[in-house]
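Hi everyone,

Forwarding the result from last night's run.
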Amino acid sequence: MNQRITHLLSFCILIFSSFSSYAVTLSTWNLEWLTLNPSEKFRPSERNQHDFSQLNVYFSQSNSQILAFQEVDSREAILKVVGSDYRIFLSDRSTNPKKQFTDINQYTGFAIHHSIPVTDPRDLSLLPNKKSSKLRYATYVIATVDEQPLHLLSVHLKSGCLGQKKNNYACETLKTQTKELTDWINAREENNDTYLVLGDFNHTLAHPRSWLWKNIKKQTTEAPILLTKSTKGNCTVKQWKRDWPKYKTYTRLIDHGITNDIEKRFTVTQQVFQQADVKKYQLTDHCPVIFKYN
């Protein structure tokens, strides 16, 4: 009898241990002009209820407890994608009329499941010297994961400097933004904080000759880990040209995740759309990237 009790207790301890190890899934997704007030100037913003429902299907399939999003115009719009079980943390820019456009705004932010405790520090401007800038704020939150604080940043960096560095405005802006980003990373390192930066970098960071990734490593006191270094891309999307749809497949990622958390293992995948859905619905011009954190 005592031996049976011992075996039962051992079994219970094993089961309890397996459930007590906490795992969370995060994702980043640029939602391309997501709004409830579409504009004829931006054809992708014109979504109907079926489009929103299909976006919700893909989000549900990702099993994400934390979503870093970009190009979202309002809380109401992102809630139609993630559902009511999530708290929305929208860019601080959304509360400042001087930092907003009159038609559609492209905010960064987070949707975080109600079961995860979160604090909401002040956001980070990636162009602090351009006081009139209405773009490129990074949303900053601190989530409690596995009983430890995880500092999260949702970014949307300047487009137009996808690969090779050029002597133009886009690349110079991207260079400025990454300096602000690495200053934030260095502050996290100085405080012994665990961080994770997610978002649309508008650059192929995983390319072996990426000047931007070299800059990030050079400007940080402790070089971060590029979680998407080996992640394969195969994202087919719809693009509008003069009111005609065109379809393109991207094989190199510009949506990335970088961290200093060497103790956790991440499984990183791109969530691709079904081609029939791309044709039938107005989805997005980015596929989500999923980070399983355990």
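The helical segments are 2-20, 49-62, 75-82, 169-190, 211-219, 275-280.

Cheers,
N.
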